[in-house]
Amino acid sequence: MMRSVEIFMVALILFSAFAITSYFAVLPSPRDISGLNLRELALSTMETLNMNDDLAKTVFSSTSDPSWGTLQSALSASLPANVVYNLTVYDIVTSADGVVTYSAVKSVSNCEGDLGVDSDASSHVVESSDVTFTATSQKIGEASGRNITLYILNCNDANGWWITGYTAQSLASDLRNLLSPYFRTTILVNSTSQLGLLLDGTALGAERLQDAVVINTFGEAVPIPAGYYATQGYDSGSRSYARYTYILGQRVNTYNWTWVSIVGYPLYYVTNTAVFASTQNSWGIYGMRMTGRDGGEGPAGLNAFLRGLDGQSYSYSSSGITGDIGLVQFTWNASYYSNYYGVYPSPYQTATRALPTSILNTYHLRVLPNSYIFQVKSNYIAGATYNHRDSGITHGSLTAIGLTRTPDIRVTALGLLQYFHPTIYKSELGASGTSRLVVLQLAVQGGA
Amino acid sequence: MTGISIDHMISLAAFIAVLMVSMSAFAQVMSVAVIYQRNHQVSMKAAELANTLLLSPGNPIDWAHSNSTLLAFGLQDMETRGYSLDALSLSRLTSTQPLVYFPKTGLWYSNNSLGGGGTLLVPLTSALNYTTAAKLLGVEESYAFRLAVTPTLSVSLSELDLNPLTIKAEVRGLNGAVGNATLNYLLCVAAPGIDEYPSLQTLSGTSQTDPTGIATLEFSSVDCSAFAYSVIIYARISGLAGVGYRCRDSIVNNRIIPFVEDFNDRTVLLAHSWDVHNFPPPVTALYFNATFLSLSHDFQLNEVQLVNSSEFARSGLVNYGTNYTQIRAQIPTQSAGILLVAYRSGSGYGIAAMPWGIGVLGFPVAYGGDPSSSDWVAVELRQVAINRVSYQATVAVWRTSGYNLRRV
User: Fold this and answer.
1) CB < 8 Å to A7, chain B
2) From A115-129, A421-435, B268-282, the region with the lowest mean pLDDT
């Protein structure tokens, strides 16, 4: 008898457990599993109603305008019969101290009262058709009273290296499209002889040569003009063209240029299809040779350039200074300016030619915090603008992007923009009288 | 001693019974939970697929306008963005309708002519079949889907009189008649021209529906009792747009049927119906005159002349049988519109219409698998625009593999 009583107790416990479990394990209704996606339906309804700006016209019309009635007809015609709606338009008001408030202008609905907790809504900002939104860039140098010229090397008598898949000319064209809105004057340097003129201090037109930005689109190679620079730039002692890059460094210092290297090891090769017509870079590309001794020792170019930039005497050094640091990541500044200017290269890149931080002391260079493109890794800088400082004044700069090939010129553009950080003047979207917020709330009538 | 044994036996039997009942009850609760979870996954997949199909243009982004290989599937219109679909992308989806064989090209054609008027026949070699689309979307072994795109506004046209031609237009939305809708109409009449070729005369205007959603259009100067006509009406109300089409031929047994030849070159073959359907004789050759009506942003149809060269014709003679070469026409512009071909045989006239972009004639689209045998189908509903005409896109998704529990 005792056993039966025990079993009765067991049964009681089990059924109690089941009852409690059933009470708490209440599954949502089928509508919650796969109901109408009201939020997306509301958004797509507003978007399609505004496809021909009809919604915007109604929203900005007088509250007694008949178009509100046709808007209601359109909503009823486009939503399923079991869906009720409430469309409310808010005026966006910005006070003098910048506080934004939303005041309801008008509401149309096919349902009296609240739509209930199961409703969902989407919002859509519509702009008045009478307003044009613009974004105008401040010109670089304008704030300090200097018109900075952008030179982009586009020499037709030179070849590029480590720009695989592109030509220097296509990169020059893309860079001009990206950067010319930010400069008062943008000039394509179409031949090495034109580059020679610039190095001589002669402007190609009416532009200002001093303080210019010079972008070398030839990758690891640098165009060398025939004549003076090819002869004076040749170091017969080391049988190299390191002296040319040394002169280049001097000129950058003298004219306070910002020299930009878009990829890899800067100044590793010199290029001129006439001067080096029968010379190749050991990879089969004619018209160029390594900068250093006997057409080798490429690092000599950058070493000589930095000495020239720093005003040191010329000496030949072929020691490689870059580091292969692998994956690098944008700095906070780079991410910020990427959004600010709408330039979106990948924030993760591979750096195999990063410059060491030690050059900052050796050549009296400085990197401003906002000009670091990538985070410093193992004492190497993958991308930044280096200012040469002399008595507290900048005399020449170098922007070096030490990433591996192929180049993403958006990184170069971003590096320059975050260094110069020109202001973008934008018409304010959402300013009083120009935009209104439309909220469409939907709910499903009836059971699941 | 006997009492104790009986007590043990009864209690054991009762224990086993209680255990089985409670296990079964708990299993039921668990199975409902598992089904809920799995159905929720299907519902999530439906939202994901709807986003992919409707909010991405695919790769390459101009895949429907070229002959390039499709790498990623999407239907968004890259120019308009948002919930706007590319009309040519939708034209290139293999229809669920029976295929059409055209012996002269030796090709099968997807019959995308689901609308009330006009035909759209796309070579299968240029159409995207469902299997490929499912593979590109990465759901071929786990889920199936069906995409249905239907016009939001229905504009039905009926003929009240032929002399003078009087057309009744009725505009309806999802919840009944749509009053005060603005109507833009274009009437094309195929009538005698100079020599044997028919002429295409057009008449356009605007009107408005009454509160019951009806408008009557009387063309007082048009007598269509002996000729063919087609009328296209765009109805608009506060951003919503719909289209209606009606056509009447005065010729029997002879037609011109346009076939899309190449989307990249925008070429169309004009075939005699005898070559397609093998009608019994007698049939006659058809003189034709073709034009293209380009749809503008404000829903006006503007005539653009077709190319006339040794390769492409805008007027000529379409004959049947193997002795005659194919007649080709080329769509003269990149924009959407309607190819209208007026044809004549003796005193009989006809008009063939082919939309270049399904929105211009309000064609619906049904693409994908059949969900009727599926236990659970999740549905996503979105509003979209195609050629600025309002549509509703429904993406239905269901599971095709894996462990399927029956609903309890």
Assistant:
1) 11, 14-15, 18
2) A421-435
Could you tell me the pLDDT band of residue B182, with boundaries at 50, 70 and 90? very high
Contact A74 B42 (CB under 8 A): no
Buried b (16+ CB within 10 A) or exposed e, A409-441: bbbbbbbbbbbbbbeeeeeeeeeeebbbbbbbb
Is the pLDDT at A397 greater than 80, yes or no? yes
Per the prediction, chain B carries an average pLDDT of 87
Q: Do B50 and A40 touch (CB under 8 A)?
A: yes
Contact call for B14 and A7, based on CB within 8 A = yes
Q: What is this model's ipTM?
A: 0.86
Instruction: Determine what percent of chain B is predicted with pLDDT higher than 90.
Output: 45
Q: Which of A24-28, A284-288, A365-369, B164-168 has the lowest mean pLDDT?
A: A24-28
Q: Which of residues 129-168 of A touch B (CB under 8 A)?
A: none
| pLDDT classification of A274: cutoffs 50, 70, 90 | very high
Mean pLDDT of B150-176: 92
Which residues in chain A (67-106) have CB-CB distances under 8 A to chain B? Answer: 67, 69-71, 73-74, 76-81
d(CA A237, CA A35): 82
- Residue reference for tokens 């950080």: A421
Phi, psi values for residue B114, rounded to 5°:
-90, -10
Report yes or no: A25 at the B interface, CB cutoff 8 Å.
yes
| A&B contacts, CB < 8 Å | 148
Q: Kindly indicate the confidence band of residue A324, based on its pLDDT and cuts at 50, 70 and 90.
A: very high
Confidence of residue B29 (pLDDT cuts 50, 70, 90): confident
β-partners of residue B380 are B395
Q: Which of A41, A51, A87 to mutate to test the interface with B (most CBs of B within 10 A)?
A: A51
Give the pLDDT score at B96: 84
Residue A350, min C-alpha distance to chain B (Å): 27
Q: What are the tens digits of pLDDT across the range A74-100? A: 999 999 988 999 999 998 887 777 788
pLDDT of residue B406: 44
How far is residue B335's CA from residue A81's CA, in Å, rounded to a whole number? 35
For residue A179, which of A205, A146, A204, A214 has the smallest C-alpha distance? A214
Sheet holding B267-272, edge to edge: B256-262, B267-272, B327-330
Q: Do A18 and B25 touch (CB under 8 A)?
A: yes
Distance from CA of B375 to the nearest CA of A (A): 13
Whether this prediction's pTM lies above 0.90 is answered by no
The DSSP secondary-structure symbol of A391 reads T
Q: Which of A8, A15, A73 sits opposite B180 (nearest CB)?
A: A73
SS (H, E, C) chain B: CHHHHHHHHHHHHHHHHHHHHHHHHHHHHHHHHHHHHHHHHHHHHHHHHHHHHHHCCCECCCHHHCCCCCCECCCECCCCCCCEECHHHHHCECCCCCCEEECCCCEEEEECCCCCCCCCEEECCCCECHHHHHHHHCCCCCEEEEEEEEECCEEEEEEEEECCEEEEEEEEECCEECCCCEEEEEEEEEEECCCCCEEEEEEEEEEECCCCCEEEEEECCCCCCCCEEEEEEEEEECCEEEEEEEEECCCCCCCEEEEEEECCCCEEEEEEHHHHHCCCCCCCCEEEEEEEEEECCCCCEEEECCCCCCCCCCEEEECCCCCCCCEEEECCCCCCEEEEEEEEECCEEEEEEEEECHHHHCCCEEEECCHHHCCCCEEEEEEEEECCEEEEEEEEEEECCCCCCCCC
Q: Which of B174, B381, B390 sits opposite A36 (nearest CB)?
A: B381
On the question of pLDDT at A428 being above 70, the answer is no
pLDDT of residue B193: 82
